[in-house]
Specification:
With about 850 residues, the protein is of the alpha+beta class. The chain contains 15 helices and 45 strands. The model is unreliable at about 1-35 (pLDDT under 50).
């Protein structure tokens, strides 16, 4: 690379051209053409020792399909073996358990040779994960599964696990990684992005500390992870531009990458020549493990400590390709909920736990979290592959969950043929007072009763289909933690009408807590009736649909913020969709040029939150849409959910990655107040002083990489054109986000109760039951699954408030419980024997 800012496309083109040239011309002629006059080494160069890391970075998908990626893995691994036969000093480094599986399945003989070189110590397996994923956007549990499946697969295939974590090309690194990686057996880390021009670090070798206090010995690759051309130039640049390090022992990577290739013969010739030069650094054919082993011998190194996220690179990738982003979150949520239900069910009511199907579904999701896939920076054809993969995962989750709950309902008596019966299951480990809806084909007047035969609040509304007598029943009930309640719908009119404080008109929704009104452009104003305050600043409205200029490429290279306003959605049309005692719903339709935004706003009678179902039909190009919420606060703090943590971000308008929720909390007079927004599909946020913004959609060209210029006379495949849907919940609150337990609310928003219809049959199980309960502030359940090696249980919890706390996990069906302490952000994994109730703590590899 000529510059640390060189684009991946340019580097790839140069690498491929170089490889092609090497295969077509004699070595001597090539070197005669490329060799420059050897400059004298810098005076301090002889003090340096470089561990030369032979590598061939492979993007299994990017500007090509995964099928081509598979072929590149095979050819690159084969080439590495050839180089080992030619040079007994050469060592090679490669990551990704999936790559080793591909080779083992496609060419067993080639794989036997690789295993031999691994056993000799000349081929090093790094990474320990299924693939090299994006590590901004996957949830914490998905990052755990990368290592759980990756390390186990490597041990199965090559007889060992990785010691060094390895994500050189990922577009930023979430602060939870030190804890996760250490608990997966890796205490070293190699990465490259963000590079020096994107984030200044005190040193490229440092201790990276997560919010829980875990540390990784980490190394940022200087200049680039690939180099198929001039090794001497690379070393000279590192000494000249990155020489101020706490040690003179550094790594330098060489070998063609992105599309594979790896080291070539000319690299060996270069290394031999440098070794003969006066004043040159010491060069060692090495691997990351050998490098870190050497560093750990230098016990007095003054290594700095770096805390927090390693951001920002390619901020456009937090939002581009909405379908992949939504598919990822849906699949993660569906799989973890299905595992929990079937794991509990396997012991409590004889359900089947389809372990192999879950594993295959997770493998697909983990592959689709590869950084150029989940980031949305691959070719258009891969987006179709991603949709199919997420569909497979969702189908596995839905089938297994539905079959398990059907087996549960069969054990609950539903004996009156004149009634309809529903079993409502709460997949969250805490009690829930909630509104539940279900379509029923029922002609007569009818009303629901709880399991004790008591009337419960309800309303009927238009069904999801318009055939026969299908109507939607909405009812409010209380559900036990990780448990169920039977609801009986009897065919008779209500003796007393349901009444609440809910009021609905064309441009107003109001309950006892909130009064929501709508502007001419469809924006919302919220009056918090309990505090008497308007939520938005200076009489402004919220959820403003802002259209901003987006000049960037797919990655958003060279961009940190999007703040050039060019228009808004306007001219709202309103329609009341529901006007009942439990829920009011108003549809608001606005337009901007060729695009239409439809939001169905919903206010429930007994909640302090406003819900929205959003449908966007988008036909803009090189523009970005944000929803803006200008909150009336003094000195606010902006907080975003992160994997297994949260992060407080600057209010400077910079684009930041976040997960299911964002919060802005500050003071209002003498009291703390705030506004939170939960969503089920978006990952990009920006805070402009008091204005919390969610990025909804971007529309660059697929895999457009600057500095390539778009030709206005050509047609291109533009991203995110057409219709997309997602959901939001707006939560005004007293206190900060902890006061309303925002992580728990997000869990319930995405993992809401599941309704199973019952036929008429006998049963001996109670009409209400609970199987698991978690007691403790800020404790979230991240996973409940069967162990990888047997049918016992694994439950994983994380402390989400950033504070010390005590928790109790109760298992009523096992007549056992666990009590323990959590430190801030601690991930705790428990192994449970459901036969004898014995519980022990294990690591993230379930050991």
């Amino acid at each position: 690379m000529e510059s640390s800012k060189i684009s991946r496309r340019t580097f790839l083109e140069r690498s491929l051209l170089g490889m092609a040239a090497m295969s077509l011309v004699p070595w001597a002629d090539l070197w005669a053409e490329e060799r420059k006059t050897i400059a004298q080494w810098a005076p301090e160069a002889h003090l340096y020792t470089f561990h030369l890391i032979g590598h061939g970075h492979i993007d299994p998908v990017w500007l090509w399909s995964w099928r081509e990626g598979l072929s590149v893995v095979m050819s690159t691994f084969c080439a590495a073996l050839d180089r080992m036969n030619e040079n007994p000093e050469f060592r090679f480094t490669a990551s990704s358990a999936l790559f080793y599986r591909w080779v083992a399945e496609n060419d067993p003989d080639l794989f036997r040779q690789i295993r031999q070189r691994i056993n000799e110590g000349r081929w090093e397996v790094v990474g320990g994960w299924w693939i090299e994923p994006d590590v901004n956007l996957p949830c914490g549990e998905a990052l755990v599964r990368q290592g759980l499946y990756g390390q186990r697969e490597l041990e199965r295939l090559v007889g060992r696990r990785a010691r060094t974590a390895f994500l050189p090309d990922s577009f930023g690194h979430s602060q939870c990684l030190p804890q996760i990686l250490r608990r997966q057996g890796m205490n070293r880390y190699v990465f490259m992005r963000p590079m020096d021009h994107e984030k200044k670090l005190p040193s490229d070798l440092f201790w990276w500390e997560g919010p829980d206090g875990s540390r990784l010995l980490s190394y940022r690759i200087q200049i680039g992870y690939s180099n198929s051309r001039d090794i001497q130039e690379r070393l000279e640049r590192i000494i000249r531009e990155f020489g101020k390090q706490p040690t003179h022992t550094l790594m330098a990577f060489y070998g063609a990458g992105d599309h594979g290739g790896g080291p070539v013969k000319k690299n060996f010739q270069q290394i031999a020549e440098i070794r003969q030069q006066t004043g040159a650094p010491t060069l060692i054919y090495s691997t990351p493990d050998r490098y870190f082993d050497a560093i750990e011998q230098e016990t007095d190194l003054p290594l700095p400590v770096v805390k927090g996220n390693l951001h920002n690179h390619a901020v456009g990738c937090y939002s581009v390709e909405s379908a992949i982003k939504k598919g990822n979150r849906q699949a993660e949520t569906a799989l973890t909920l299905a595992e929990a239900i079937t794991a509990i069910g396997s012991a409590a009511w004889g359900a089947r736990y389809p372990k192999d199907a879950f594993t295959q579904a997770w493998h697909k999701v983990l592959f689709l979290q590869f950084h150029d896939s989940l980031a949305g920076s691959s070719q258009a054809e891969h987006s179709d592959v991603a949709r199919q993969g997420y569909g497979y995962a969702l189908e596995v989750a839905d089938q297994s969950r539905s079959l398990a709950l059907q087996k549960l309902e069969w054990q609950i008596a539903s004996e009156d043929p004149e009634s309809e019966y529903l079993v409502v299951f709460n997949p969250q480990p805490r009690e829930a007072r909630c509104d539940v809806e279900y379509d029923l084909n029922i002609k007569e007047e009818a009303r629901p009763l709880d399991d004790q035969g008591n009337p419960i609040p309800y309303q009927w509304s238009i069904g999801s289909s318009q055939s026969e007598s299908v109507k939607k029943l909405l009812f409010r009930t209380t559900l036990p933690p990780m448990g169920y309640r039977q609801i009986r719908v009897i065919r008779e009119p209500a003796s007393d009408p349901v009444t609440t404080d809910l009021q609905v008109s064309e441009r107003r929704l109001e309950n006892r807590y909130l009064s929501v009104t709508f502007s001419d452009n469809g924006e919302i104003a919220i009056l918090d009736k309990e505090t008497g305050r308007q939520v938005f600043y200076g009489g402004q409205t919220g959820c403003r649909a802002l259209v901003l200029h987006d000049p960037g490429d797919t990655w958003g290279h060279g961009i940190q913020r999007y703040d050039e306003l060019i228009g808004t959605f306007r001219k709202a049309r309103f329609k009341v969709l529901e006007e009942g005692p439990l829920r009011g719903m108003i549809r608001v339709i606005t337009t901007y040029e060729a695009s239409t935004l439809t939001i169905d706003w919903m206010l429930y009678a007994e909640t302090r939150a406003l819900d929205a179902r959003v449908r966007l039909d988008w036909h803009e190009k090189q523009k970005i849409l944000k929803f803006a919420f200008p909150v009336d606060l003094e000195s606010p703090t902006a907080t975003l959910e992160a994997p297994f943590a949260y992060v407080e971000v600057e209010r400077d308008g910079g684009e930041e990655p976040g997960h299911r929720w964002a919060d802005l909390s500050g003071t209002s007079g003498t009291k703390t107040y705030g506004l939170s927004v939960i969503n089920d599909a978006k990952y990009a946020y920006s805070i402009h002083d008091n204005d919390l913004r969610i990025t909804i959609v971007r529309s660059p060209v697929y895999a457009h990489n600057a500095p390539n210029k778009l030709d206005p006379n050509k047609e291109y495949p533009w991203m995110d054109q057409g219709e997309q849907t997602f959901r939001m919940r707006i939560v005004p609150h007293a206190g900060d986000w902890r006061q309303v337990d925002l992580p728990r609310q997000a869990d319930f928003f995405l993992g809401s109760p599941i309704v199973t219809y019952q036929g008429i049959h006998a049963g001996n199980r109670p009409k209400e039951g609970s199987f698991l309960q978690i007691i403790g502030q800020g404790i979230r359940m991240a996973a409940l699954k069967q162990a990888e090696t047997n049918e016992e249980w694994i439950i994983r919890c994380v402390e989400s408030f950033g504070q010390n706390t005590t928790a109790e996990i109760q298992f009523p069906s096992l007549q056992t419980k666990w009590q323990g302490e959590f430190s801030p952000f601690e991930i705790k994994t428990l192994h449970i024997n459901p036969h004898n109730g014995r519980i022990r703590t294990v690591d993230l590899l379930e050991e």
